[in-house]
Amino acid sequence: MAGDLLDNRGRGDAEWGWPAIHPEGRKFGVAAVVAALAFIFLFGWGFIGWPLLVASLGVFAFFRDPERVVPQSQDLIVSPADGLVTLIGEVAPPPEMQGTDGFGGQGLSSAPVTRISIFMSVFDVHINRSPVAGTVRRVVYIPGRFMNADLDKASEENERQHILIERNDGIQIAFTQIAGLVARRIVPFIKPGDTVAAGQRVGLIRFGSRVDVYLPAGTDSKVLLGQRVIAGETVLAEIGKQGLIEGVNQ
């Protein structure tokens, strides 16, 4: 009935459930299982097959795709990635996100803004989500190196993909998917012109990586260095809100 509290799937009761496996990862998990069974039962090489079978479980776990409960306030910027906040600082947005796009679309200015960097280990969920609702204005893929994604210069030298989203009020938020030491593929789910909701799945990075978020001018971070964040749920910032926060590791 009207006014009843529902869970994130429209049901009356919240309950735990096994997370789904994203289709992008099912082929890897199935291939690992088939190879393991072949080593065990066809070749009799259990010393290879059994460890490989255990490893296949890790592959399925890596590509898990849990449901998330997205905050609904329109001025909130939610985390696009699960992981650890490793860098927060003032930097200029990527050149690919600045100026016009050649088709009349205006991007970000060159003025420095707050950048929040989130490092994803191989144990984190690697499905990335949109930090805000709006229209995808740019998706720019850049090939590059595979340095440790935790390093600051990885944002300029590693393989990466920039995404620019514009809200209905014209405010733009850019974020960058960055491949790391182990990651070798950035997989997009969106293209320019698509309309996305806050917390909607927009892509993934295979096997360890990083995501940078560029906050709008006049907006400060609501998270701290060393804080763990959850894609689609943790609030990184509130548009137009400033003010430093402090925290202590415990």
Automatic annotation (TrEMBL):
<keyword id="KW-0444">Lipid biosynthesis</keyword>
<keyword id="KW-0812">Transmembrane</keyword>
<keyword id="KW-0594">Phospholipid biosynthesis</keyword>
<feature type="active site" description="Schiff-base intermediate with substrate; via pyruvic acid">
    <location>
        <position position="209"/>
    </location>
</feature>
<keyword id="KW-0670">Pyruvate</keyword>
<keyword id="KW-1003">Cell membrane</keyword>
<comment type="pathway">
    <text>Phospholipid metabolism; phosphatidylethanolamine biosynthesis; phosphatidylethanolamine from CDP-diacylglycerol: step 2/2.</text>
</comment>
<keyword id="KW-0472">Membrane</keyword>
<keyword id="KW-0865">Zymogen</keyword>
<keyword id="KW-0456">Lyase</keyword>
<keyword id="KW-1208">Phospholipid metabolism</keyword>
<dbReference type="InterPro" id="IPR033175">
    <property type="entry name" value="PSD-A"/>
</dbReference>
<dbReference type="GO" id="GO:0004609">
    <property type="term" value="F:phosphatidylserine decarboxylase activity"/>
</dbReference>
<keyword id="KW-1133">Transmembrane helix</keyword>
<feature type="transmembrane region" description="Helical">
    <location>
        <begin position="30"/>
        <end position="63"/>
    </location>
</feature>
<keyword id="KW-0443">Lipid metabolism</keyword>
<comment type="function">
    <text>Catalyzes the formation of phosphatidylethanolamine (PtdEtn) from phosphatidylserine (PtdSer).</text>
</comment>
<protein>
    <recommendedName>
        <fullName>Phosphatidylserine decarboxylase proenzyme</fullName>
        <ecNumber>4.1.1.65</ecNumber>
    </recommendedName>
</protein>
<dbReference type="InterPro" id="IPR003817">
    <property type="entry name" value="PS_Dcarbxylase"/>
</dbReference>
<feature type="modified residue" description="Pyruvic acid (Ser); by autocatalysis">
    <location>
        <position position="209"/>
    </location>
</feature>
<dbReference type="Pfam" id="PF02666">
    <property type="entry name" value="PS_Dcarbxylase"/>
</dbReference>
<comment type="subunit">
    <text>Heterodimer of a large membrane-associated beta subunit and a small pyruvoyl-containing alpha subunit.</text>
</comment>
<comment type="similarity">
    <text>Belongs to the phosphatidylserine decarboxylase family. PSD-A subfamily.</text>
</comment>
<feature type="site" description="Cleavage (non-hydrolytic); by autocatalysis">
    <location>
        <begin position="208"/>
        <end position="209"/>
    </location>
</feature>
<dbReference type="GO" id="GO:0005886">
    <property type="term" value="C:plasma membrane"/>
</dbReference>
<keyword id="KW-0210">Decarboxylase</keyword>
<dbReference type="GO" id="GO:0006646">
    <property type="term" value="P:phosphatidylethanolamine biosynthetic process"/>
</dbReference>
